[in-house]
Design goal:
It contains nine helices and seven strands. The chain is an alpha/beta fold. The protein has a seven-stranded mixed sheet, sandwiched between helices. Helix 2 packs across helix 5 and helix 6 packs across helix 9.
Length: 258
């Protein structure tokens, strides 16, 4: 067990350099993230639910539920929407139009197919857009959501500031992201699974050797907890609640624009 603690600390110490999927010379993180998600798009939903044992669906529901008391609530923006799972669930649960954006066309196309299958084409719009340069007016949306996307931003503060910019005053930002368990034994079990089991399954199913190594690396590098809330404050929103999920594996951050 001491080896597990030592291993976790060693991995945390390695997160001082920028984390990218492929470390290609001359390529930006945004370009590599787009390349990675285009590569794994066909297997993305399968792996999400398989690797989380479907727990991720409950996390998303809890995140969306945090908007039920927001009034008025007439339009939601879902950034880094991927294949549209959160956008579709938000419309089903809240009954309002949702606009979803993502950097990766391959993911968006799968999302559009899912939206069409549900018959929500007139309620959910998915479009390609850079999270750091959102093509929307100031104060346009009542709420902005993002699930498992902010750690992929090339410039975290810039992406968060853009999200804050498009929320109306009194509106809400809801971010669901992986975090790092702090307590024994979940901390050690989580790291063993994340570093040794998840990447092997991910590589076998997605056929991308780096994508599911990048996942734990990006989570370890991400400033979770109060450290992340400092970034929210810098972006111009006030943290109001932080919800730890499944022994700290993931966290919902809720902030409001004053």
């Amino acid at each position: 067990m001491y080896l597990g603690i030592s291993y976790f600390c060693t991995m945390e110490e390695k997160t001082t350099t920028p984390i990218k999927p492929y470390y290609q010379e001359g390529q930006s993180k945004a370009t590599e993230v787009e390349q990675m998600f285009n590569a794994i798009a066909p297997k993305y939903d399968l792996l999400n639910h398989l690797l989380s044992m479907n727990i991720d669906k409950g996390w998303r529901k809890k995140a969306i539920s945090s908007l039920k008391d927001l009034s008025p609530l007439s339009h939601i923006l879902d950034v880094a929407t991927g294949t549209g799972d959160l956008a579709i669930m938000a419309h089903k649960m809240l009954g309002v139009p949702v606009t979803g954006t993502d950097l990766t066309e391959g993911m968006i196309e799968i999302g559009r197919q899912k939206v069409a299958k549900e018959g929500y084409q007139d309620k959910i719009e998915l479009a390609k857009a850079d999270s750091e340069a959102l093509p929307f007016a100031d104060n346009q949306f009542d709420a902005v959501t993002v699930a498992f996307g902010v750690r992929n931003y090339a410039h975290l503060d810039k992406g968060l500031s853009e999200m804050a910019r498009v929320i109306r005053h009194g509106g809400r930002m809801v971010i669901l992201e992986f975090s790092k368990p702090r307590h024994f034994p979940m901390k050690q079990l989580y790291m063993f699974y994340f570093r040794h089991i998840l990447p092997v399954i991910g590589r076998c199913v997605s056929k991308d050797r780096r994508a599911y190594d990048y996942l734990p690396e990006s989570v370890l590098a991400f400033p979770d907890g109060t450290d992340f809330e400092e970034h929210l404050i810098t972006a111009g929103v006030a943290p109001v609640k932080r919800i730890s999920l499944t022994f700290g594996i993931a966290t919902i951050y809720i902030a409001e624009k004053q």
